[in-house]
Amino acid sequence: MRNMFADAPRTSLTAIYWAFLLYLLLPLTLMMAMSFKDANFVAFPIGEWTLDWYAKVMQDKQFLEACLYSVMIAACSTLAATTLGTWIAMLIVAEGIKGQIIIFALACLPAVVPGMISAISLRIFISTIDMPTGTAAIILGHTVHAVPFVVVMALTRLRSMPGNLVDAARDLGADSVVAFFRVTLPYLKPALVGGMIFCVLLSIDDFVRTFFLGGYRPTLPMLIFAKVQGGMSPEINAMATLVLVVTAAVGLYAEYLTRRARTR
């Protein structure tokens, strides 16, 4: 009897876990299933399973252009965020720098500010400096949002770095720049690669900031949103499924790199 009550919390947690997992996966499963439907509307039952919608998506010029545009924005914002995030992380762990806690808090602030508030603030900012909406504004917004994630990952890696590595490089005649590129940067590589992949995923998935900062050229989330306004169809489900599969694969690879970096 006592063992039964002792196992009750574990059973409850297991049930809650599976219920939450079902809550997350069931909508995604239904979305993927509807992408194989042979009719023009999204509803059960599914008469025949077909790949025609995927073929149509891959021939959709607007979809392909939106994908390339999103990838370009993601690449630019990731490069900028990685550069800034690495520099901020180095500043936080550097000796003799005052206010490191404040620097860390300010660097991580964009990650905790609600997306809507962040988007409105960025829109006011670009209006103040007379920056037009469009590609540059989107890259700015995505960079600001991605920097905290690079900072955290780089900082975690830097704090596990033996201090004698840089000291040994300096004893051999290397200055600060050479020591950074020959010692620190290679040590940071696994964390930075993982952080860059997360930045790419954040950028491609960012709808709110793109909505407020974008121009007439749609990114992938904006294109899907515009198509949804005209009504749901299996073609939209096929688009979303392709994006889901690619982002999930990239995200799992980033998690693998992060775990490997922690074990080294």
Automatic annotation (TrEMBL):
Name of this chain's protein: ABC transporter permease
Transmembrane segments: 12-34, 68-94, 101-126, 132-155, 191-216, 236-254
Pfam families: BPD_transp_1 (PF00528)
Gene Ontology annotations of biological process type: transmembrane transport
GO CC annotations, alphabetized: plasma membrane
Keywords of the record: Cell membrane, Membrane, Transmembrane, Transmembrane helix, Transport
Domain of life according to the entry: Bacteria
CDD domains hit by this protein: TM_PBP2 (cd06261)
Domain ABC transmembrane type-1: 67-254
Family from the record: Belongs to the binding-protein-dependent transport system permease family. CysTW subfamily.
Broad class of where this protein is predominantly found: membrane
Entry membrane topology: Multi-pass membrane protein
Location in the cell: Cell membrane
InterPro entries named in the record: Bact_Polyamine_Transport, MetI-like, MetI-like_sf
